């Protein structure tokens, strides 16, 4: 199948591009390179530098490349910034996505894969989180993702769109060969910050909150390897043959891992100490967030390869040691 990957030069998108090709499909990338890295996409993959909201440009790509499925990873992801600058998030994450969907509708492309987030659940009442848990985002980032999910349900009913919605937990790690990996600017994610602290390239880690009601007092999260995550997306392609349906799947391992456990894994894998100080809690951080992803495993035949946190951190370290300055910008 011909697969248009919006945001294919970003962290998760670029890993998905490679998995789409590995599964025998033909990836085509559109990315405006605001956050993406051109180097993250192999030179033989068709690449369009354009905005999703550019309906003429996107429409032409859909037709010229005979696109069957659109996968959408091109969103802003900084929770704190979404509180400060919600306008930016609503326009980029909601308006541009609606423009993309309108273009797809006008060109008769009816299959859509959407990257959503565990942030749609807000502060969940029970753990692990199943897909039918109430959605109640506590920041504009999570809200924009949920707004798009609601639009997908309406478009499925009205226009026969079929969509796969994936709610990610903590996407982490890097490709097994160390060729591509995580390079955000600014970086806010725990694993790259802890690795940077260990190597001395970044300041000592600030551990946000050591007094949570968890076994070691630090937050519990569900770290899912980016290639495991990508493979689930491709496994969903067959489901999209049925018109007018929206599927929702959590993507996590189901294993809660604390911040201190991540620090210990980074120390073991790198052989270096992670200097850190205990800082105040970060606003909006729930004590624990981990997935029940049995639905994705059952319905997609999806298998998690990176169950153990050390192997996941080792893949991040492999990328980092080969690319100490990320993609070099
Ligand atoms: N943490 C620190 N110090 C840091 C960075 C993070 O202690 O410098 C802690 C956080 O408090 C949290 C854990 O490490 O307990 C993981 O934090 P990340 O920022 O790596 O990830 P989050 O769980 O906050 O965010 C992830 C995704 C978001 C998504 C959110 C909710 O990256 O896009 O899950 O689903 F919105």
UniProtKB/TrEMBL annotation:
Domain NAD-dependent epimerase/dehydratase: 3-252
The keyword Plastid is annotated on this UniProt entry: no
Named cofactor requirement(s): NAD(+)
Listed Pfam families: Epimerase (PF01370)
Catalytic activity from the UniProt record: UDP-alpha-D-glucose = UDP-alpha-D-galactose
Molecular function terms, GO-annotated: UDP-glucose 4-epimerase activity
Record keyword Isomerase present: yes
One GO term of the biological process aspect: galactose metabolic process
CDD domains: UDP_G4E_1_SDR_e (cd05247)
E.C. numbers: 5.1.3.2
Pathway recorded for this protein: Carbohydrate metabolism; galactose metabolism
Keywords: Carbohydrate metabolism, Isomerase, NAD
Family matches, as InterPro entries: Epimerase_deHydtase (IPR001509), NAD(P)-bd_dom_sf (IPR036291), UDP_G4E (IPR005886)
Subunit structure and binding partners: Homodimer.
UniProt record similarity statement: Belongs to the NAD(P)-dependent epimerase/dehydratase family.
Protein name, entry field: UDP-glucose 4-epimerase
Organism: Ereboglobus luteus
Organism taxonomic ancestry: Bacteria, Pseudomonadati, Verrucomicrobiota, Opitutia, Opitutales
């Amino acid at each position: 199948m011909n697969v248009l990957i919006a945001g294919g030069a970003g962290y998760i998108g670029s890993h998905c591009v490679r998995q789409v090709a590995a599964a025998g499909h033909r990836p085509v990338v559109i990315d405006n390179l605001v956050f993406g890295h051109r180097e993250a996409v192999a030179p033989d993959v068709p690449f369009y530098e354009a905005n999703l909201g550019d309906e003429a440009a996107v429409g032409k790509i859909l037709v010229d490349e005979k696109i069957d499925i659109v996968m959408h990873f091109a969103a802003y992801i900084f929770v704190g910034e979404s509180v400060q600058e919600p306008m930016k998030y609503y326009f980029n994450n909601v308006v541009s996505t609606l423009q993309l969907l309108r273009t797809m509708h006008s060109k008769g492309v009816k299959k859509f894969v959407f990257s959503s987030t565990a942030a749609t659940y807000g502060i969940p009442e029970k753990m692990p989180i199943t897909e039918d848990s109430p959605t109640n985002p506590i920041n504009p980032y999570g809200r924009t993702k949920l707004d798009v999910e609601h639009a997908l349900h309406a478009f499925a009913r009205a226009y026969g769109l079929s969509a796969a919605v994936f709610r990610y937990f903590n996407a982490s790690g890097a490709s097994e060969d160390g060729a591509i990996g995580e390079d955000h600017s600014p970086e806010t994610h725990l694993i790259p910050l802890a690795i940077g602290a260990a190597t001395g390239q970044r300041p000592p880690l600030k551990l946000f909150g050591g007094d949570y009601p968890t076994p070691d007092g630090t937050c519990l999260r569900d770290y899912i390897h980016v290639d495991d995550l990508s493979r689930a997306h491709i496994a969903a392609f067959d489901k999209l043959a049925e018109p007018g349906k929206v599927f929702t799947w959590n993507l996590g391992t189901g294993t809660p891992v604390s911040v201190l456990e991540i620090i210990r894994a980074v120390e073991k894998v790198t052989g270096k100490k992670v200097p850190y100080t205990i800082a105040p809690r970060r606003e909006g951080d729930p004590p624990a967030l981990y997935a029940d992803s049995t639905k994705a495993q059952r319905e997609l035949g999806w298998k998690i390869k990176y169950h153990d946190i050390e192997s996941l951190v080792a893949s991040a370290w492999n990328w980092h040691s080969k690319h100490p300055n990320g993609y070099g910008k």
